[in-house]
Give the backbone structure.
Amino acid sequence: MIQTLLEPKYLFTFILMGTIIYITYLSKKSSSASDFFVGGRSFGWFTNGSAIAGDYLSAATFLGLAGLTFTIGYDGAFYTFSFSIGLTLLAIFVAGPLRKFGAFTVADFVAYRFHSKRARLVAVLVVLSISGFYAAPQLLGAAQILSMFFDTSYEFGIIFTCSVMILYVGVGGMKGTTLNQALELWIRLGAFVIMVGVAIYGGLHYQKILTAITEFSGTIANTSQFTQDGKDVAVDGQAWSTSGVITPNFIHTLSLVIGLSLGTIGLPHILLRFYTNPSAKAARKSALMAIGIASVFFLFAVFLGVVGRALFIEGNVNPEVMKHLITGGDNMVVPSIAEALGGKWLLGLVIAGAFAAIFSNLSGLFIASSGALAHDLYASFSKKELTQKQRVIAGKVSIIILGVLYGTLGLLVKGASIGHLVALAFTVAASTFTPIFLFGIWWRGMTEKGAIAGLLVGLAVSMFMIFFASALPPALQFKVPGIITVPIGFLTVYIVSKLDRQVPTDVNLFMKKVHSKQREVA
């Protein structure tokens, strides 16, 4: 028993869990709604920048991007380019003004901008929709790791992860969440740095292995025992190194870029992080730090995806690793590479890093969604004035509700691709909240009806394009339908606002507040 617990995969995972519990315990006291939902707006740019990067660099980055590059090559690497654009746009156009606005939740922005409870209600619906899309693939990643490396069932993995989140976020609130996210970022970045270093030291230089991959065409020996059809895996190096799987032409490429790059601006759990800074200047510095960290992460993810492809083609890895590369799909490539490069110790560190990525992102989604339920629904629509203690209790109860809801969604996505599911969440965000925040911050003419129409139409069109695209002509079917859904979202807000013309009377005061150069107050 003791020997089993000292295995690296158990050891590193227990250390991670112990650290989470300790930080959560230290952060357990939330005396006010500000403490629970935005951490008292007390985090400096370095801590919050680390937390933003930790929140943004989810399982889709740690597992999915390398996996997509491993599986489909050029198109997978192109995801990283699109994701990196999004953080830059967020830092330039939204981070500072959003912190100057100062609130608890994403829906607060819409509600206060138009003095509308209807707008708040619609915003809550969109927050929960985006967060659900994003939470499901994180839970998928956690369940797959537990199943593959700890021999648990998929269902146990979902229940275990949701239980950790209920403890993690329900007890620690935003303070515990932020500190854990910051720590977990550096754990997984450290894992990536070590993997890249080991790969390069072992002679797996990028240009060398890229050439070997693109020139190889044929079957991989001794893989038939792991495939469903009983045949060796066939690969085509030229097809892998060119576009065509997700982006078969320029229009599909543009659609991917639009959906993913603009989606970052509309992600509720990322937007919420800028409320936790003490000032707009700190918010901008946090965003810039997150961009730098993310850029390094994306570079490493693409490189490791190529490394994994090279190891797979060579076929010299042990049978267990080869089995994971084939049966685990593109979600388990990074752990498989770690085991191939550094054995059980590097695998143990990467498994802990993967859990850190999943816990970090899920905690952000839980805290953002709990704000939507507890603050935007319960507190805002309550007939009586709630005390600070009652608001905090409502936030904790909502965490339990979300654990059940997201757990159910996690059970429904078994076998899907983490990277692609997250891409769809970005598309929904880009088509709904992105027009609202860009217009809301930079255009005086947006009205309440325009905002509500934009949110509802953007959500409806996104859902249709994701779930019922097969009903459309082939020319309108996209893996990531941003080129259709995002313009519709923006145009709906603009056209309805122009027709409505009921601009809030205090819009100039609002614009002065979010764009003022004066020192902000918490």
Residues 29 and 369 are 20 Å apart (CA to CA).
